[in-house]
Amino acid sequence: MASIGFIGLGIMGTPMARHLQDAGHRIITSKFIIPPRQELVDHGLELVETPKALAEALDTIILMLPDTPEVEDVLFGENGVYYGLGEGKLVIDMSSISPIDTKEFARKVRETGADYIDAPVSGGEVGAKNASLSIMAGGTPESFERALPLFKLMGKNITLVGDCGDGQVTKVANQIIVALTIEAVSEALVFASKAGADPARVREALMGGFASSRILEVHGERMIKRTFEPGFRISLHQKDLNLALQGAKSLGISLPNTAATQELFNICAANGDSGLDHSGLVRALERMANHPVA
């Protein structure tokens, strides 16, 4: 089994790294804000001083970080991964970040003789824990085949979309669909509840028809039961929709419903809800309706 560098051991990264450990891989990390969870340490997690040292010692480095600036800092900041790279090494960025910046990161990494794959994921904390993530990869076919055994330990639906950056484009498209579907479910449940119907029974009825979806199933239940502990925080979905809207501007296209949904997330953030699960978007509509889903 291989020794793998893994930087970014948070809500998503921890269970992903655990699956690699369970398969017999040795996981080594560096540079963290929050100390790694004890379960990783108990299963042999090791620590080196800097990301550069991690890259010097290992052939494969996985990143799972919150946003573009964090990825840039870990790669190219002082004692970053970039400065320890060389021929035959592989950087796998599983964060959800800017497609434009991803292409530039890949270009610089490839100059060292190493290769780069962007492989953002969908499925949230549940998918990470169940090793059922959807993984959307951008990179060369050769590097994808090299990374595939690792991907199979963390996910189920694994697709090479194209070259570097295309994985991130796909993830942004995914986040548009997820956000708009959460918004639609929120509207439907607020409407039904305000009209006097039992939202739980409405959801149950809708689950048997064409409106059925994973988001109605999981997030609809969260809205009704008021369980907004974060699997995927509103603040992170705001970040993803910012990437979508920035990309749309650069392409000269309009994403009107994405922009409207982002405004609802902004309302949530203005009311102190940015740390809630993104299903908490319903709270913005509840405020507008002066009526909670109940």
TrEMBL record:
Keywords assigned: NAD, Oxidoreductase
An example Gene Ontology biological process: glyoxylate metabolic process
Gene3D superfamilies to which the protein is assigned, alphabetical: N-(1-d-carboxylethyl)-l-norvaline Dehydrogenase, domain 2, NAD(P)-binding Rossmann-like Domain
MF terms (GO), sorted A to Z: 2-hydroxy-3-oxopropionate reductase activity; NAD binding; NADP binding
InterPro entries found in the cross-reference section: 3-OH-isobutyrate_DH-rel_CS, 6-PGluconate_DH-like_C_sf, 6PGD_dom2, 6PGDH_NADP-bd, HIBADH-like_NADP-bd, HIBADH-related, NAD(P)-bd_dom_sf, Tartro_sem_red
Stated family: Belongs to the HIBADH-related family.
The protein's name in its UniProt record: 2-hydroxy-3-oxopropionate reductase
Organism: Sinorhizobium alkalisoli
